[in-house]
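User:
Care to share a sequence and structure tokens?

Assistant:
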Amino acid sequence: MISGFSQSKEDVQIRTEQIADGVYFMESINGFGGGNMTVSVGEEGVLLVDNMYDWMFGKIKNALNQITNKEIRIAINSHFHTDHSGANKSLKDQAILIGHENVYQRFWTYGAKNVEALELLPTITFDDELSIRFNDEKIRMIHYPNSHTDGDVIVFFEKSKVLHLGDIYFNGMFPAVYASSGGNIKNLILSLEDIINRFPEDTRIVPGHGKVSSMNELEQYLKMLKTSVSIVEKGILEGRTLEDLKTNKVLNAYDDLGEGGGQSTSEFLSMVYTLLSE
């Protein structure tokens, strides 16, 4: 959950921005309705990358109706968190749902305790990489293991040079990494290094949260992560406590990210310290 927003569902709206020919960016505004979406629109129909919470589905449909009368045919999940995959429930009877095998396994496991999770299961799963061709575009899905979670998938639109990173990237705010979901902050750094080396410099990037970004901005984000991990890891090796590092404000150079709507600097420091101590 991203903090700092009004949580009145009635107030939440969707803002749409065209970022390439036939490719759109959608985000929730006036409150938090879920993570960012990338939308492909063309003769073959509509493809969604991520789909917010299920209670946002009517608003997603209304936003789509402003740009096309085509039906949603494919929905890709960047990972299993329901602020990105909740509308699988509404989409399952009308679209092909695609996700990493670990996304399926997460929902299947949770279904033993909460049967509603079984309504979120992807229809098609894969392990390492999957490519499809849709709306005159080759769309590549690549698994980056144990980064934000154990089921993270990035989605690259080759013709449009649009890259959807899901929660591997939080633009303008600190990231969240969940060890309980298979996340690992050092693996996240390795994933980002590979992504930066793999894709064109002029790629437009859709983060899981925050505004549409450039590769240069992603490089700065990676630099922040590397520096933060290095500072905290050094403190741990020196036997310093978390409270000591907080008191000395060792990450205060990044306080602007602490005001970006995600975690505060103190919360991020606590997360990094815990992850590196496990």
Remarks:
- The two ends are 23 Å apart (CA to CA).
- Residues 215-237 form the longest helix (23 residues).
- DSSP finds nine helices and 13 strands in the chain.
- The longest strand covers residues 162-170.
